[in-house]
């Protein structure tokens, strides 16, 4: 076999947002959690990672580029993922290109990896979840690995815990598992993205002046110091997970919203019970919660669920497009863009919802009236950076169109 | 006996701030808590309620004035206190004035009550605690009640739970009790105000745009919906209370600070775990916590403890005057007054600390440099309304100087 060939695979993997939260590891190295968690996968059209992985006898070392910038692969989390996936590599033959890689060759061959997020990395939108899931998925395809998505999820988990839930679309459960080696700590799909396709999701990317605690160190400190975390993990979450699975199976939005909100709040309660306390939500997050709570209580049944990860951004899950359009009206009344921002860059993702909400330009936003259930007509321009409109979405896919590859097929370097 | 006489007593009672928090009742009417709590009494020179109670055969009904404004006494909490204290009234004789009230007369005689807080009622500084304690204490003195302060505390408790802790100076424990009738749910003094007189207290009265949930309805909602509250009450607080008593006995500031901060944070964690979630702290509260945490960690041992009640105000307990002066420098650097506010109205209470901090005017405040442990040099003018400088203080006293009475000795009406 020639020394100049480059073999590549490109994959696209979604992010996910937990509705039953993962917070706390029982094993730091293997990334084994203290409780099960459940997530909804977000539509990769609006939030996803694309990763191209390449192998070539010409490569001198493993290298990686994230959003065009070279990054170190020396971290334990990358090394664990690379080691585990290489172990499972099998013979690969590309007759057209005249390439044949034997199983044993993979140990010596080096990899190039290029990854790109279609959303701002710094926005606190679980980029590491999509990133590690995509890395493992793309490598599995390149290396002809025969393990299924659940088995791959246990590898992605060793990169970033929540990454294991990005191997599937729809609603996904990360089973905490019991084994010391972590072999049974993996993700399974509860239902696919078609099961509950009424749901619509609006993410408020909230401005923050605070530097946030990373979730890795935050959850370590919670495990070490919170006197509530173990009670949550052992007594609260197991029952809540069962109820959540029921709610998802039955598309019972009232129950889904109640549990989603309660579990987000309890996760942040555990953060606050940590020493020193961790504050991920800020006054804007609190105001969004207050708006949603008041609206839900003013209706016969809840219209919107909220959930917050390790940052101030609100993920708002509306029971259908109509509720999402009404939600958007409420949000834009209280959190309009700053005067120099246009609606087109303030609402991104699936902008079709704007039409449903009767908001075709800034004039329509300015004409919005306060909503009766909300006691305050106060406006907070600039407190939200932008909104992303999206939906539950599908799992990882291979992109066969070579034009979408992030590495040059000749050099194996970023395009 | 003539029909024109008025007999009066005036008392002054301190506020208190809990260092082990009371949150959750097991009996709403008797106001019986789900856990013990511990507080420090604040110096009445800076924060207290003064109450004059008067009795006269000329009074047609029970009446009350708070800060000069007539208030209804029809609420169950007032009625419970009045009933319980009347039950214990005894014979009173004032030979000088030629007045004699028989035990049985008290049932028919009406009362006038005037109460005044030497601090803003709306500032969220436990005015109801001082108020009910003062009401019960002053009435007990007027009616020659023989019960001791602990027994009176069980009556004040029925007005406002935390009021029972304002019957003593120094550090006070509210024992939750076991009896269904609440007879053993009362306060005891752990140590008097001289036991640990190094402590210095700075209260940051924080600006808030939010209308806060009352503690009464907030704790009811927590009891009904938080899945963490019972765990806190049954598993966490009993151990923590014992450690806190030890820390106070030994004047062990490191342990005192650790438990005080952890318990404040856990109380707010339970509020967040409530449905709908309750947020008492805001971004300013979070910033103050972050400042204190960073400073404490940069020193060999903690310098300051923080605690927050049902609002955004920070109560900061410094281990001594020196630490308090350093704290004040740090606070004034980050939270200076707005440009139209002078230092004299921005720092109230025991202003002598300003000299210790080298801050004799706004020029000195403007000349402050950022402190090395605090990563940010950001300033937030206007985010704090003012600071109250004070210390642990004494319990209730009778004011024998008639000039200090709030009711006219002839008419029994507010002066």
From TrEMBL, chains A, B:
It is found in: Peroxisome. InterPro entries: GHMP_kinase_C_sf, Mev_decarb, Mev_diP_decarb, MVD-like_N, Mvd1_C, Ribosomal_Su5_D2-typ_SF, Ribsml_uS5_D2-typ_fold_subgr. Residues 201-398 form the Mvd1 C-terminal domain. One of its GO terms (biological process) is sterol biosynthetic process. Coiled coil: none annotated. GO terms for cellular component: cytosol; peroxisome. Keywords: ATP-binding, Lipid biosynthesis, Lipid metabolism, Lyase, Nucleotide-binding, Peroxisome, Steroid biosynthesis, Steroid metabolism, Sterol biosynthesis, Sterol metabolism. GO terms for molecular function: ATP binding; diphosphomevalonate decarboxylase activity. Residues 14-187 form the Diphosphomevalonate decarboxylase-like N-terminal domain. It catalyses: (R)-5-diphosphomevalonate + ATP = isopentenyl diphosphate + ADP + phosphate + CO2. Its EC number is 4.1.1.33. NCBIfam families: mevDPdecarb (TIGR01240). Performs the first committed step in the biosynthesis of isoprene-containing compounds such as sterols and terpenoids. Belongs to the diphosphomevalonate decarboxylase family. This is Diphosphomevalonate decarboxylase.
């Amino acid at each position: 076999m020639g020394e100049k060939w480059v073999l590549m695979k490109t994959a696209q993997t979604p992010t996910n947002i937990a509705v039953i939260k993962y917070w706390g590891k029982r094993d730091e190295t293997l990334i084994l959690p203290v409780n099960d968690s459940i997530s909804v996968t977000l539509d990769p059209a609006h939030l996803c990672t694309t990763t191209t992985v390449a192998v070539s006898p010409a490569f001198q070392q493993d290298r990686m580029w994230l959003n065009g910038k070279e990054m170190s692969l020396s971290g334990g989390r990358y090394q664990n993922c690379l080691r585990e996936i290489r172990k499972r590599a099998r013979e690969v033959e590309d007759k057209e290109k005249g390439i044949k890689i034997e199983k044993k060759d993979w140990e010596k061959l080096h990899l190039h990896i290029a990854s790109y997020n279609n959303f701002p990395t710094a926005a606190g939108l679980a980029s590491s979840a999509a990133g590690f899931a995509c890395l493992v998925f793309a490598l599995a395809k390149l290396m002809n690995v025969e393990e299924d998505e659940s088995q791959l999820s246990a590898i992605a988990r060793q990169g970033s815990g929540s990454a294991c839930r990005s191997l599937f679309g729809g609603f996904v459960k990360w089973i905490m598992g019991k084994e010391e080696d972590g072999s049974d700590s993996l993700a399974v799909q509860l239902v696919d993205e078609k099961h509950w396709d009424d749901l619509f999701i609006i993410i408020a990317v909230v401005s923050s002046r605070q530097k946030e605690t990373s979730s890795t160190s935050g959850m370590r400190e919670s495990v070490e110091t919170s006197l509530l975390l173990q009670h949550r993990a052992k007594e609260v979450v197991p029952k809540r997970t069962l109820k959540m699975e029921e709610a998802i199976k039955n598309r019972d939005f009232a129950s889904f919203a109640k549990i989603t909100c309660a579990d987000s709040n309890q996760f942040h309660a555990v953060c606050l019970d940590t020493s020193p306390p961790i504050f991920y939500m800020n006054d804007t997050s609190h105001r969004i919660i207050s708006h949603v709570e008041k609206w839900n209580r003013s209706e016969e049944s809840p219209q919107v669920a909220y959930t917050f990860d390790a940052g101030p951004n609100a993920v708002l899950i509306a029971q259908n497009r109509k509720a999402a359009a009404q939600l958007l009206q409420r949000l834009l009344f209280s959190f309009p863009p700053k005067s120099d921002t246009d609606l087109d860059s303030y609402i991104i993702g699936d902008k079709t919802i704007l039409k449903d909400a009767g908001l075709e330009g800034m004039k329509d936003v300015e004409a919005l009236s306060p909503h009766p259930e909300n006691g305050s007509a106060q406006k907070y321009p600039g407190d939200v950076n932008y909104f992303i409109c999206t939906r539950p979405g599908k799992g990882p896919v291979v992109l066969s169109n070579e034009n979408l590859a992030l590495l040059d097929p000749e050099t194996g370097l970023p395009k």
